[in-house]
Amino acid sequence: MIKKFRIFAALALVATGTLILAPLQILSMKTGLWPETFILKIWHRLIARALGLRIHVKGELSTKRPLLVVSNHISWTDIMVLGSMVDVKFIARADMEGWPLIGMLSKLQRTVFIERERKRTSGEQASEIAGRMAKGDAMVLFAEGSTGDGNLVLPFKSTLFGAASMAIAEGATEQVFIQPVAIVYTRLHGVPLGRRHRPIAAWIGDEDLMPHLKVLLAEGALDVEVHFGEPIAFAKGSNRKETARLMEARVREMAQAALADPRPSR
Q1: Which residue, among 154, 180, 166, 158, has the nearest Cα to 70 in the 3D structure?
Q2: For the whole model, what pTM was predicted?
Q3: In whole angstroms, what is the distance from residue 28 CA to residue 103 CA?
Q4: In angstroms, rounded to a whole number, what is the distance separating the alpha carbons of residues 78 and 73?
Q5: If pLDDT is split at 50, 70 and 90, which confidence band does 118 have?
Q6: Which pLDDT belongs to residue 90?
Q7: Judging by beta carbons within 10 Å of its beta carbon (0-12, 13-18, 19+), is residue 250 exposed, middle or buried?
Q8: How many C-alpha atoms does 145 have within 13 Å on its Cβ side?
Q9: Alpha-carbon span 177 to 89, nearest angstrom
Q10: What are phi and psi of 69, to 5 degrees?
Q11: How far apart are CA 127 and CA 133, in angstroms?
């Protein structure tokens, strides 16, 4: 009964907030009355609160621009976690565009939707990402190309690091800064999540969204750590694959540190 009430209350909070904030975000996008991420950060925080996410941050988003933020990926909730804290825009897989609520939220923050399997469109997508970075948007790339179970960082795919190369080749900038970020779900109700239970937070592969949403809403009180690493400069002559491997190593190091010594719940 308590879990059912929690789900109902959380959904009511999100629905009410969305009815208020969505028109304000549309107004912001059309008029520029506020920065586009101002309303979105409130919206993300609302959803994070409804889910019971308790966010712990180490480090900070780089102020250097153009900026490509490279992160591991565990769940659709990663977007709420990052979006609630910092002014960023996202690079997401194409099918997310049609998801209820998440798709609408993504469109309202000008997410770049990519089709990883269609090589014909990869150049256009990289060009759009490059253009957005050149205009000052900090773009978030979930570089594994899929979601993991939270225990391991999957190999990073180097393809979309090509957006950094393209921004330089097109003359939009002389260099792009690339910053590693690790997202780690560490505790449930204050108790450390072990290897066996950490996948509770994970949304993997073709798993349906609604069952996973209900689990998170029913449980609540999930701690997540976000670790920001030091950015590196990617310039003409930099190797895309080597950069992808370096970012993968740094994200894995930060993730393992968070898993080994999770911060106390609050």
Answers
A1: 180
A2: 0.91
A3: 18
A4: 7
A5: low
A6: 92
A7: buried
A8: 12
A9: 15
A10: -95, 125
A11: 10
